[in-house]
Specification:
With 453 residues, this protein is α+β, with helices and mostly antiparallel strands. The chain has two domains: 178 residues, Creatinase/prolidase N-terminal domain (Creatine Amidinohydrolase, Chain A, domain 1); 271 residues, Creatinase/methionine aminopeptidase superfamily (Creatine Amidinohydrolase), CATH 3.90.230.10. The chain is 37% helix and 18% strand. The strands form six sheets. The protein has a six-stranded mixed β-sheet, with helices on both faces. A three-stranded antiparallel β-sheet has the order 9-12-13. Bound molecules: glycine (GLY) and manganese (II) ion (2 copies). The site of one manganese (II) ion has 5 residues, from loops.
Length: 453
């Protein structure tokens, strides 16, 4: 796909807008208003790196700040972009802006206007609209909600009381989440490339590790690989956890030193062209697993293998978690970490002391991506887990985390292990797109020997 046809009427963005417009019409029609993410100050006049809102980007392909999307589902559908106007002086400082005229053509909108004109445009567009659609939850930091209130009030004024307020409101979050849950061919291709870059980053970090290294040194290897490979950013702050830090689930790469005999847990992934990747690997800093480390590692790996076998349309979202919990719990029983029978230990949640998170989540534009995990059902509280289907992407990430405790054998203290891969659900099974970095313990040791030798 070339740059040009990415944004014409045949682009995935235009196709998604048409789908959404059709759905809006099925709800009686009306006007949808979406705002992209606001810029955020880091301090004084210094901004955090800008990241568009995912829903907004999904429907527009437009990644500048200060942009709005308006969809009119009526007698004639209209897709309107409002964006920052051209501003030669600001562009010297902040970079070239598309501006409405060029943006309309390039991104395939029926119309585009300067966002400064929103207050003039919206009341007119809303006159006669029975229903207003918006993603209110995604608009934190924008003034979408109060502006919509003002615009609908102004629209009522314009229509000279012919239509009384309030209009009907519909949140678009769920329907857009449903669309985003099923990735198309181009999205899957981007996610495979993001996964491959992240895997290379993990290989590089593994090979750079040595007893005495700091967590931040390995983070630097990850970041270097991500950016060197063209990824725009990390998908989330990198977790690089040496030794006992691996038992802190969201430990950020810090100043801790990995000592000889420690494991290092790295949970890191890049964001490429708006799509996340999410990989965890756990490896011995000196290149050789100890017996107790290996015993726990093998349990987690087996749990991951069993969960991956269930990332297919034959199973529901929770089947992988249940399978992983069974393997992990049996392993904990075998090693004397917990006591009892398997079924009883699962039933009373004994494993949760050492495995306290779920085995995966949707992955897409956001690292914890949108999409319902349960089927819609007639009765609240009885919603079954969602059946998996081709085009869904999820992570598979079991783990074991053992904190020091008198009732736990000391050889297991401070060992934290997680193994995480990203899987595309296909009819033929789970396609693991992150295996550019090995999970097999012997392959990991060989990779590290290669670097040392
Ligand atoms: N990196 C966050 C997660 O694995 O869910
Ligand atoms: Mn994850
Ligand atoms: Mn992760």
């Amino acid at each position: 796909m070339t740059m040009t046809d990415l944004h014409t009427g045949d682009s995935p963005f235009a196709r998604r807008r048409r789908l959404l417009l059709d759905w809006m019409r099925s709800q009686g029609g009306g006007v949808a208003v979406l705002a992209t993410a606001p810029e955020r100050a880091r301090n004084r006049d210094n901004q955090y790196a800008y990241r568009h809102d995912s829903d907004f980007y999904y429907l527009t392909g437009f990644s500048e700040p200060g942009a709005w999307l308006i969809l009119v589902a009526g007698a004639q559908d209209r897709a309107i972009l409002c964006c920052m106007g051209k501003h030669p002086e600001r562009e010297i400082w902040d970079g070239v802006r598309w501006g409405p005229e060029a943006a309309a053509t390039h991104f395939g909108f029926d119309e585009a206007h300067d966002s400064e004109r929103l207050d003039d445009l919206l009341p007119g567009l809303l006159v006669g609209a029975e229903r207003v659609f918006a993603v209110l939850s995604g608009a934190q930091g924008t003034d979408l909600a109060p502006r919509l209130q003002r615009w609908t009030a102004a629209a009522a004024g314009l229509s000279r009381g012919a239509r009384a307020l309030p209009v009907h409101w519909t949140d678009l979050s769920e329907i857009i989440a449903e669309m985003r849950l099923f990735k198309d061919v181009a999205e899957l291709d981007t996610m495979r490339r993001a996964a491959a870059i992240s895997a290379r980053g993990h290989v590089r970090a593994m090979q750079a590790a040595y007893p005495g290294c700091h967590e931040y040194e390995l983070e630097a290897e990850l970041l270097y690989t991500f950016r060197k490979s063209g990824a725009q950013s990390v998908a989330y702050d990198s977790i690089v956890a040496a030794g006992a830090n691996a038992c802190v689930l969201h430990h950020r790469a810090g100043h801790a030193v990995a000592r000889d005999g420690d494991l290092i847990l790295i949970d890191a992934g890049c964001e490429l062209d708006g799509y996340a990747s999410d990989i965890t690997r756990t490896f011995p800093v000196n290149g050789r697993f100890t017996g107790p480390q290996r015993a726990l590692y093998d349990i987690v790996l087996e749990a991951q293998r069993e969960a991956a076998l269930r990332a297919t349309p034959a199973f529901d979202f929770n089947a992988g978690h249940d399978a992983a919990v069974r393997i992990l719990t049996q392993g904990m029983l075998d090693l004397g970490l917990i006591a009892g029978t398997l079924d009883n230990a699962i039933e009373r949640g004994a494993y949760q002391r050492f495995y306290m998170h779920r085995t995966g989540h949707w992955l897409g534009m956001d690292v914890h991506d949108v999409g319902a995990y349960r089927e819609a059902a007639a009765k609240i509280g009885q919603r079954p887990w969602r059946k998996l289907a081709p085009g869904m992407v999820l992570t598979i990430e079991p783990g074991i985390y053992v904190r020091p405790s008198e009732d736990v054998r000391e050889e297991f203290w401070n060992i934290g292990i997680r193994i995480e891969d990203d899987a595309i659900v296909t009819d033929a099974g789970a396609e693991l797109i992150t295996r550019g970095v090995p999970v097999d313990p012997q392959a990991i040791e060989a990779l590290m020997q290669e670097a040392a030798g």
